[in-house]
Amino acid sequence: MVSCRPPNPVRKPRSAQIQARYSPLEKTPHKAPFHHIVLMMLYAPGVRRAELTRLKITDIDNRRMIIHIQGGKGRKDRDVMLSPKLLEALRAYQRHGF
After folding, report:
1. Pairing, β 78-81 against β 60-61
2. pLDDT of residue 74
């Protein structure tokens, strides 16, 4: 059977939709710095929730800009990139001692 309808056009997200999706991350630091750090750790390097709970301060290597994840999915170790923005947020959080 052949359909006579044209295929549905692919919609591109508008910039307002994209900004609305990421605006909660930008608003979070003023209300709850801890939650902002958690969201950044989950989003930026792609750390899984269970991996984040086992993360130690010694796993963050700011000289090489990596985070060493131990015992991740499949009990495998891996290294993920540490963004400069996340590193600065972690340093600010540590400095203020929240």
Report:
1. unpaired
2. 85
Mean pLDDT, the chain, whole residue set: 80
Q: From the CB of residue 60, how many other CB atoms can be counted at a distance below 10 Å? A: 16
At residue 59, the pLDDT reads 93
The answer to whether position 89 is within a domain reads yes
Sheet holding 78-81, edge to edge: 60-61, 66-69, 78-81
Higher pLDDT, residue 1 or 36: 36
In this structure, what CATH number is given to the domain that contains residue 36? 1.10.443.10
- What is the domain range of residue 58? 20-96
- Is 81 a member of any domain? yes
Angle at 65 between CA 72 and CA 73, to 5 degrees: 10
How many domains does the structure of the chain reveal? 1
